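Newbie here. four chains, one complex. Structure please?
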Amino acid sequence: MDPLSVYAGKVTAPPLRKDAARNRQRIIEIGRKLVADGTTIQLNEVARAASVGVATVYRHFPTPQALIEAVAVDGLEALIQAAERAVEQDDPWTAFRDFLVRIVDAQLSDAALSPVLSAPTAALPGTAHLLDQLSSLFTQLFERAGAAGQLAPGITLADMTPLICGIAFSARMHPAIDPQERAAVGRHYLDVVLNGLRTR
Amino acid sequence: MDPLSVYAGKVTAPPLRKDAARNRQRIIEIGRKLVADGTTIQLNEVARAASVGVATVYRHFPTPQALIEAVAVDGLEALIQAAERAVEQDDPWTAFRDFLVRIVDAQLSDAALSPVLSAPTAALPGTAHLLDQLSSLFTQLFERAGAAGQLAPGITLADMTPLICGIAFSARMHPAIDPQERAAVGRHYLDVVLNGLRTR
DNA sequence: AAGAAAAACGGATGATCCATCCGTTTCATT
DNA sequence: AATGAAACGGATGGATCATCCGTTTTTCTT
């Protein structure tokens, strides 16, 4: 039987070989460190730091962007869980607002998230799937808030991702040293935008 | 007499030699084209396109950032003029708002401006000077609006540059094709933020 | 457990990109 | 026209990128 047909259409790829899984994990770990430090990712350098051949890195992650996405997976899953909890919330506006607080905060504390959330297209299929889930949940939150008459007219779903990423961008640009303070700045900017977004 | 002492403290450098001025202009023209196209700037490539030696490019602009700043000069000067006109405006809020509209629009129509306005430090002394002028004029606009009681408490001068650049970032992220439409999106996002900023 | 097939590995290496250095040319000055 | 200073160009050494292929490791089969 052709392996291609076996996995065709599946999101889950065949399980990795033991050594491959180990190396992949090592690479991601190094990637996480580099992303956190704000260093621009160089795949050759990642290989050296992970004590792994260059080709191994390139096989797993053809581009730095792909590695960043792999690093972002945990954060994306956490956001999806938060969105799932939010859709359970009774009050549409509270659900909407709390989730936005969460997503801004996440972008500021996890440097891998911003590039993934603001990238037009994903490099890894796994990321695309997570982004789809997140997008679908967020759409619900947005439409519920809109249906409850809480959103000013003229605001569309397509505006939300840019606005959220713009807020994170602004907060990152603010000359705040300490992460705590930066989170507060992000929260502040979000409040400004939410004020502007809300029906008055 | 030591040339250093002659020019010490002056912003204006000794006039360029004829050939140097010509080459500098050529290089900037090519740079303008590349920036407009959104291409990442490679100094060797710029040299080739400008029919000039690599060293000539590096002598004038040690980094891509420096070339971008040179390209941005016209836009910066236009913004300074707009700010000067705005401080003449009678109504503090109108002056403030109109200038923000202008600066957002400028960032969206001139791709060289964003990196310069959001960069923490300038690569060329000329840019630093222009940014200082702009900053000083904007401070006046901001403080007048604040003194008129039009700004919500909690908003500081240090928030304004991040917020403005964030708005431009958001608009650039929006999936709008046509520049006209993108300008409208930027204007829209600015309205949202201004709503949130204003005392109610 | 042994052997074979498949999967993954590593790092040498050619290709590409970067930026400096220095011999030559052009310009301004007298 | 001569001289010194300023600017020029591009060859080139150094760094980074990413592929290719001979070797090793794992998994599967019998």
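Moderator note: Residues 17-20, 42-45, 54-55, 58, 62 of chain B lie near DNA strand C (CB under 10 Å from a C1'). Chain B has a mean pLDDT of 94. Thread marked as resolved.
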